[in-house]
Amino acid sequence: MDVRQFFFKNRSYTPLPLAFAIIFFADPSGSATIVGFLLVLVGEIIRLNGVHHAGGATRTRKVGAPALCTSGPFGYVRNPLYLGNIIIYAGVVLMAGGPFMWQLLGITVAFFFLQYGLIISLEEEILTGKFGDEYRLYLTTVPRFIPRTTSWSGHNKTSPLTWGKTFRTERRTFQVVAIFFLFIIAKATILR
């Protein structure tokens, strides 16, 4: 099996060791907790907007897309969901605090850039095969992670979800973030 395929199929589970370490060393305090919470909100807003515009084709076990999405955040950055995830996890690390906060932040960000780098290379290969020159133009015009200052006006072929469906699609992300919050709060209050 291609290692990229492994990371794609297991992308919801590969961060679990990091999650356990973040919770184990958690000791929230001070401004880092507030900054972390704000980062989690920013990351989730990016994800919500991305899921809304992608039309719900975001929680799949198979690499590919039914149509090329270039609207909303996809007009600024090719991988807004992955960018949102990195920001959320960075925020969780800062919220958790603890003696190894900065080391865990570096490890977390490095892990996600490695994992998503592998996944993105697989996705780009498959999407180039499926959408051809249209996708190649998108690749050369819209950056992977650092957003453009203006939205690219490509030929979007997806229809946004209703906001109700968007929130239902994001239910799992909300649950994971809530579980993090609960464990961090429990560690800070009950287990002290």
UniProtKB/TrEMBL annotation:
GO terms for cellular component: endomembrane system. Its main location: membrane. The chain crosses the membrane at residues 20-42, 81-98, 104-122, 173-191. It is a multi-pass membrane protein. Gene3D superfamilies: 1.20.120.1630. Keywords: Membrane, Transmembrane, Transmembrane helix. PROSITE patterns: S5A_REDUCTASE. The keyword Repeat does not apply. It is found in: Endomembrane system. This is Uncharacterized protein. It comes from marine metagenome. The lineage of its organism: unclassified sequences, metagenomes, ecological metagenomes.
